[in-house]
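Feature request, filed as a ticket because there's no other form

It would be nice if the structure record came with a short human-readable summary line next to the tokens. Right now we just get the raw output. Example of a typical job, pasted below so the devs can see what we mean:
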Amino acid sequence: MSKVSSFELEGKQAYQHKKYSKAAKLFGQAQLEYQDLNELVKSAEMANNQSVALLQTGKNKKALAALSGTEEIFEQHAEKLQLALAIGNKAAALDALKRTDEAEEEYERCIKYLKDLGEEQYISEVMKSLSTLRLKEKRHFEAVVSLNSSLELEEKPTLRQRFVKNILEKFLNKLAK
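Raw output as currently delivered:
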């Protein structure tokens, strides 16, 4: 196993074991190694992984900084799903930094890309994040609509999700009358 793939594998294992600081460090090392090997897409992937791990540790500014340049790399290499995920990660970092207007724009941009790709499960997750952001902003109606949209996309909703969806639909139907 190469040194770079070892960093990547150990980073994934650390993340799964909720050792986020260690994971961020390992993903950062893998990112630099892939960059040295001129494997730009893999380098950008590791930067995105590092950003997610940094968000888990509360290092929100560093999480946003880790994403620098990743969108451009994914766009240049036609990695459309990775591009959408990078935009979603950027939105999450902006949200954590309480830059809500920018975060909302990025969540919506992410959703657009994911819709173009037909990635309904990812769309559902991003819609939930967007709904949470809108709730924090006390934009309750928009939050309800976002949450309802996310639940409609669930392929196999849990009992709890079906219950919440039912309540939301009743609420929205009453508002429509």
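Something like this underneath would help us a lot:
The chain has ten helices and no strands.
The radius of gyration is 18 Å.
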